[in-house]
Design goal:
This protein has helices spanning 4-9, 11-21, 27-58, 66-97, 135-141, 147-154, 164-183, 197-203, 228-232, 290-308, 354-359, 384-394; strands at residues 118-123, 145-146, 160-161, 187-188, 194-196, 215-216, 221-223, 239-240, 247-256, 275-285, 312-316, 328-336, 341-350, 362-363, 375-383, 402-403, 417-418. The protein is of the alpha+beta class. Helix 3 runs antiparallel to helix 4 (66-97) and helix 5 (135-141) crosses helix 12.
Length: 419
C-alpha cells in the first residue's frame, strides 16, 4: 500500500496515477478523514496540555477549586470522546488506504486496455501449419486429457490429465524447478495452499479481488490464487538483517481462482480454469536494484520458452492492464499455432514497496542502519497448464503424434514421441 504520508504529500501524483489506470478510488474521502484526524489530534494535544498544566499548578496544594475540578472532569470526558473518534477514523483510514492502487511507473504506456501494450521483443517464428489442431483436440485424441470426467467430478472448467498427459505436466513442473534452481540460482520453497486473510491482504488480493478467491468460511482461510501469496508472506512482519537481501525464491503450487469476471473467455481447453499448476518466481530486493531485477526476472521466465523452442513475445503492459499492486508489468505471451494468437503464460511485475508495506516486510541495509521497506517482485516461470497446451500445439505432427521437447525427455523416461 501507499503510506498515508505519501498520499498526503503527493496527492496530485496519486490522482494522475488513478487517471492513468482508468480507476476510481476513495481518495477524497481518505484525505478528508486524514484532515479531520489531524485536527482532532491537535485538539486532544491542547486538552492534555491544559490538564497537565492544571495538575502541575495543583501539585503540593490542598486547595481543589470545585470549578476547576469540574473543568478537568469535562476535559477528561472530551479527551475520551475525541480519542474514540480518532480510533474510528484510524480504522476507516486503514480500510480506505487498502483500496488505493500502486503508482504506475513513468515508463508504463497510458491506455485503458491491451491496445496500449507495447511489444518489447519477440522470439521464434510464428507459423500456422495446415495440420495444426487446438490443444483440446490433440489432448483428447491422444488420451492425455479428459474434459468430460473433469466436469463430472468437479463441474465446469475442470479437467483430468491421464497417462502421458499427467506425466508431461509433471515433467514440465520438475524441469522448470530445476532450471530456475540450477541455472538461475533461485531457492526452492514448498508452501501451504491455504493462507490467512492477513496473507491475502499483504500481497494485495484482499480486499479488491475477494470475488475471485475461494474462501473456507469455517476457518477463514483462502485457497491461494498463486504461490506469490504464501512465498511473499514468508517474511511478513519481519526485519531482514544485512546480507539477507536479495532473496530469490521459486515455488511450485496448485492455484485456485473462481475467475468470476472471466465469463465467456477461453471456455475450451485448459487455458482458463479454476485449478491449475504454476511455477512461481518471487524476489525481495533492495529498492535501488528492483528494476534491474525485474528485467532479470523476466529473462529467467523467458528462458523456459527459449529452452522449449516455443515462439513468444514480451509485452510491456499498458497502465489499464497493470495489476492493482504493480508499478510495472511485462507479460510473456507464447504462440498458439492452432488459434493463431499469443496466449499469456507469465506476468512479471515489480510492486516496489507496495506489498512490503502492506505485509510489514522490512530490511536493514547495513549493520545498525535504519530499517526500510524492500521492493518485491514476482512472475510465473511459467503457468504449467498453459505451457502444456502450447507444447502440444507447437510439437504436433502431421501424423497425429507429438514430439517431446528435448529438454523434457530426461523427465519423461527418455520418451521422444507421444502417440
Amino acid at each position: 500500500m501507499l503510506s498515508l504520508q505519501f498520499i498526503r504529500e503527493n496527492t496530485e501524483l496519486v490522482r494522475e496515477s488513478l487517471t492513468k489506470r482508468f480507476e476510481e478510488a476513495p481518495l477524497d474521502d481518505l484525505l478528508c478523514l486524514d484532515e479531520e484526524r489531524r485536527k482532532l489530534l491537535h485538539q486532544v494535544e491542547d486538552l492534555r496540555a491544559r490538564r497537565n498544566a492544571v495538575s502541575k499548578d495543583l501539585a503540593g496544594t490542598k486547595e481543589r477549586p470545585p470549578a476547576l475540578l469540574q473543568e478537568m472532569r469535562e476535559v477528561g470526558d472530551r479527551i475520551k470522546t475525541l480519542d474514540q473518534r480518532v480510533s474510528e477514523i484510524d480504522e476507516r483510514l486503514r480500510d480506505l488506504i487498502l483500496t488505493i492502487p500502486n503508482i504506475v511507473h513513468p515508463s508504463v504506456p497510458a491506455a485503458r486496455d491491451d491496445s496500449g501494450n507495447v511489444v518489447v521483443r519477440t522470439f521464434g517464428e510464428t507459423l500456422m501449419p495446415p495440420h495444426c489442431l487446438p490443444h483440446w483436440e490433440i489432448g483428447e485424441r491422444l488420451g492425455l486429457v479428459d474434459f468430460q470426467r473433469g466436469v463430472k467430478i468437479s463441474g465446469s472448467r475442470f479437467f483430468i490429465l491421464m497417462g502421458l498427459g499427467a506425466r508431461l505436466e509433471r515433467a514440465l513442473i520438475n524441469w522448470m524447478l530445476d532450471l530456475h534452481i540450477n541455472k538461475h540460482g533461485y531457492k526452492e520453497v514448498a508452501t501451504p495452499y491455504l493462507v490467512t486473510r492477513e496473507s491475502m491482504t499483504g500481497t494485495g488480493q484482499l480486499p479488491k479481488f475477494a470475488d475471485d478467491l475461494y474462501h473456507c468460511d469455517e476457518d477463514d482461510l483462502f485457497l491461494i490464487p498463486t504461490a506469490e501469496v504464501p512465498v511473499t508472506n514468508l517474511h511478513r512482519d519481519e526485519i531482514l538483517e544485512p546480507g539477507m537481501v536479495p532473496l530469490n525464491y521459486v515455488c511450485y503450487s496448485a492455484c485456485f481462482r473462481r475467475e468470476a469476471g472471466a465469463a465467456g473467455k477461453d471456455t475450451r481447453g485448459v487455458i482458463r480454469v479454476h485449478q491449475f499448476d504454476k511455477v512461481e518466481l518471487v524476489k525481495i530486493v533492495e529498492p535501488e536494484n528492483s528494476y534491474d531485477e525485474l528485467e532479470k526476472l523476466t529473462s529467467d521466465a523467458e528462458d523456459v520458452l527459449i529452452e522449449l523452442g516455443i515462439p513468444y513475445r514480451v509485452s510491456l503492459m499498458s497502465s489499464g492492464e497493470t495489476g492493482f499492486a504493480a508499478a510495472k508489468k511485462y507479460d510473456l505471451e507464447a504462440w498458439s499455432p492452432a488459434q493463431g494468437r499469443y496466449i499469456e503464460v507469465s506476468s512479471c511485475s515489480n510492486f516496489e514497496a507496495f506489498q512490503a508495506r502492506r505485509a510489514n516486510i522490512r530490511y536493514r541495509p547495513s549493520p545498525g542502519g535504519r530499517v526500510d521497506y524492500p521492493h518485491t517482485l514476482n512472475g510465473s516461470g511459467l503457468a504449467v497448464g498453459r505451457t502444456f497446451a502450447l507444447v502440444l500445439e507447437n510439437y504436433y505432427q502431421p501424423d497425429g503424434t507429438v514430439v517431446v521437447p528435448e529438454v523434457l525427455r530426461p523427465y519423461m523416461g527418455g520418451l521422444e514421441l507421444i502417440q
